[in-house]
Task: inverse folding
């Protein structure tokens, strides 16, 4: 069975604070893909990043960075110097090599106040 | 616009009525997915197509739900005899096959269904 757990339901920060969103996953597949999506109030899911299971390099894209650790089955997402526009629901998702569809966590609602 | 488009964006219907939603995927994507999202939850998989073939259906997809993808292009999702529990956001996504270099699914803006 595959499962994605986002233990943080809601996080509130003040602008310019750094914030980390946690994601823990379960899968029996040896090859799998992990994703983060952002869902702003408009409702559309926006793709942020894909990570392959065989590539544990961390990635940085502007203010966003991702820490993938297979040993702990975690794929955490950090926003540095958060901004009000970062306010959204963030979803972590998983698909196995033989999988047919993304399995999503329940999401973390991030509220950034000015 | 080359993204995934869904129509309508909003639908209000009376309980017991039938509704149909449409999804137009990104043209070169042969996989198409339908998800349902209720308030405070992540999207839940309903069904997916590879080209015109419907290859998997979730247990969430009751017999009142049917999906088609004629000719492997656009897809429709029909709900018959709607119930209040069907109220949700219905999301469509498309992607290249898993194992391709670019496996991410691109989502449409969704159709919000309200059953009154």
Result:
């Amino acid at each position: 069975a595959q499962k994605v757990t986002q233990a943080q339901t809601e996080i509130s920060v003040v602008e310019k604070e750094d914030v980390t969103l946690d994601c823990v996953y379960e899968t029996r597949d040896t090859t799998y893909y992990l994703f983060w999506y952002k869902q702003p109030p408009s409702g559309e899911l926006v793709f942020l990043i894909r990570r392959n299971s065989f590539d544990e390099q961390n990635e940085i894209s502007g203010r966003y960075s991702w820490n993938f650790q297979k040993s702990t089955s975690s794929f955490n997402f950090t926003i540095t110097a958060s901004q009000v526009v970062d306010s959204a629901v963030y979803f972590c998702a998983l698909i196995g090599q033989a999988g047919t569809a993304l399995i999503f966590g329940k999401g973390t609602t991030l509220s950034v106040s000015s | 616009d080359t993204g995934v488009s869904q129509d309508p964006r909003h639908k209000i219907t009376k309980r017991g009525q039938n509704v149909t939603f449409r999804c137009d995927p990104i043209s070169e994507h042969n996989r198409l997915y339908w998800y349902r999202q209720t308030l405070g939850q992540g999207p839940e998989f309903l069904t997916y197509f590879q080209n015109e073939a419907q290859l998997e259906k979730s247990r969430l997809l009751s017999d009142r739900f049917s999906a088609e993808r004629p000719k492997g292009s656009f897809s429709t999702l029909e709900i018959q005899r709607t119930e209040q529990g069907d109220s949700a956001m219905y999301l469509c996504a498309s992607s290249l096959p898993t194992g391709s270099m670019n496996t991410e699914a691109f989502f449409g803006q969704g159709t919000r269904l309200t059953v009154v």
